[in-house]
From TrEMBL:
It comes from Xanthocytophaga flava. This is Uncharacterized protein. One of its GO terms (molecular function) is catalytic activity. It comes from the Bacteria. InterPro entries: Formyl_transferase-like_C_sf.
Amino acid sequence: MSTLLIDLPSSVYEYIVKLMNTQCLVAGKQKYRIVECEAYYRADCHPDPYVHGSPEQKQYETWYFNGYGLDITLGKEHEDEDKCVYAGILIRGVCTLEEIPRYVSGPANVLRELIKQFGSVTDSGSTFYLKDLPPELQIERVIYRSTRIGLFQKKGDTDFHIRPYRFLTDLVVEHKFKSKEKALRQWVLDRRLDADAAHKIMGYIISGL
């Protein structure tokens, strides 16, 4: 069967919608919304070659350090290895829950930001976790999709490297996510945005649009 016909399970999309619309990430005394993430899911029916396949990724809703950033695992263990699911949501961007939000972009920058909130090494409260947003902030945000960052096509991969498994909200000037102009160009081409909106989001006129 061609992998071109296989998409992420609906449960993964539903989890991402919940994560970006109704939950916040708490580190120390600071709270953040997740405004950018990527999905990685490897199972028999969805052989994504860009999933690390670490044992931790077979767990569900645990933290996983992938070497340069932080994942929320969405895996599933099974006694039959062929039926195991290795999955995770890579957190690529967050913003503070302040009157004027502060955006942090990039997996390593996000992890650095979270650890910075811990303070003293003797502080027993040094941790981070997910919790529900205040009800007034639980709104249905528009979630945009684009291709994942930094993937180079592996031998035998037909299309996983270009699938739109990257998810973003908060299209504003202050949110300076990776390959922002490239993503905006694609969304204009796909008629998800008009050119005027794209110019406003970048803060300048995008050449050729």
